[in-house]
Queue: 2 jobs
Job 1
Amino acid sequence: MKKERRLILALDVTSRERALALADMLRGHFDAIKIGYPLILSAGLEVVKEISDHAPVIADLKIADIPNTNRLICEAVLRAGARGIIAHAFPGKDALLACADSAAESGAELYVVTEMSHPGALQFMAPLAEELARLAVDVNASGVVAPATRPERIRQIRSIIGSRTIISPGVGVQGGSALQALEAGSDYLIVGRSITDAKDPLAAADAILAQIS
Ligand code: BMP
């Protein structure tokens, strides 16, 4: 992923046609497009390749299984054309290493979830987030996912992961501020509904770009 716009589009729509139309309309506004279960389960795995024609795809499958299953999931989605994958660290080092190895074999990026952006993440994830970030460093992940809704946590996680990449969801609909997340040390903002559900997605994307540039 080339750091130009500092924006990643979360394309959580369930229609292949709508997804492709948005990817086309918003071409050049994002450094990558993140797609996950909503689109892949609705449109099929081939949609990874189709979206890749517009921007590098990060497959957000939040992989969280035993090492062998993790490897099979990673290989399937990387073979389909994903350039990045997102995995959970809580299943432990061996499970996360399976993802790291698969990503490395494909020259793809691995992002590890630390603390999620929604309120419920405070229940189980927040107390473990720093250990999860350390595990991301241990397996040599490209970066981590850290919440734009809690910029102070981005700052803390940055102090653990050094120069690795931080990608941050939670801007807009979830209440996070784009500027505050970047100021706290995030490299890329992940933005979905504020753009995809807007009457004019192009204008909404331009407005965020203007705000952060
Ligand atoms: P939205 O901007 O519409 O809230 O979308 C945020 C995107 O980031 C969604 O795809 C969601 O699954 C993802 N995400 C998140 O919101 N918080 C996290 O902690 C991790 C995520 O991947």
Note: The pocket of 6-hydroxyuridine-5'-phosphate is lined by residues 10, 12, 36, 60, 116-117, 145, 147, 169-170, 172-174, 190-194 (CB under 6 Å).
Job 2
Amino acid sequence: MPARKAACVIGWPIGHSRSPLIHNYWIKLHGLDAEYRREAVSPEHFSDFITHLVERGYVGANVTVPHKETALAMSEPDDRARAVGAANTLWLDGGRLRSTNTDVEGFIGNLDATAPGWDRGLRCAFVLGAGGAARAVLFGLLERGVGRILLANRTAERAAALRTQFGDRVQPVRWGDLDALMPEAGLLVNTTSLGMAGQPPLTIDISHLPANAVVNDLVYVPLETALLAAARSRGLRTVDGLGMLLHQAVGGFERWFGMRPQVTEALRALVEADLISKKS
Ligand code: NAP
């Protein structure tokens, strides 16, 4: 009989992670002889933990704050992890420790599922923010063939650095020019932490977005951000951050446990209830 397979999420702290809820839901649903655990590992113990992943009984792992850059450096990353500059998913392939960043497929998979056709005829997207999540978003949009991406960030140098990394289709713009540029964007994505519980609000005016624009907020606490509420009240299509969190989990599960799970309404309801009960 094959040995029971196990994977985990490694972080410091790790109590807040929804990954065990998501993966154990799929494990139970499909009746797999498998397990997904939380591992609280401090930065000084992370290298040792990863080096002995097999001895600890794991076929792979998710990696979260503050270990994603170290995980990248300690593994064989694919193009996505390299472009994002961080690995969130590790798996053993023979004797090799490989990695990817599933935020790219999480972002695109969520848009495809929630706003089908979002990229049809899309000439220009507007991305707010230039951190780790923005890199995953830019990679996904460019891979999908979006011709022009306007990028606004509080710290202009970080947006300029992303143009250097991703090329001329990424065009840094000033935050102060948002209003004037809104009519050009068929997709608006907030990748900043503005609007998240405990953070300052995102105060932008979306009244000049085209009527067929899609608005996607990566923030998922709260689930209905002020940005999404404003977009909904204008009748625009909206996509929330919880969907991305769920869709980014698919790739790891498939690599570790050999089957591709589905993001369903039932899974979403489970995680949504957890978010609402804990409010963080
Ligand atoms: P990060 O690397 O720390 O980047 C944070 C971004 O927010 C930067 O662009 C930063 O601008 C901007 N920002 C922060 N405070 C600001 C302020 N007061 N005013 C203006 N801009 C501000 O973080 P990240 O990993 O990219 O994550 C960003 C957000 O995306 C978080 O809310 C996170 O929860 C969410 N996220 C969601 C998912 C999902 O699955 N739904 C996945 C990944 C991330 P500066 O460059 O000027 O500092």
Note: The chain has two domains: 5-101+243-278, 105-239.
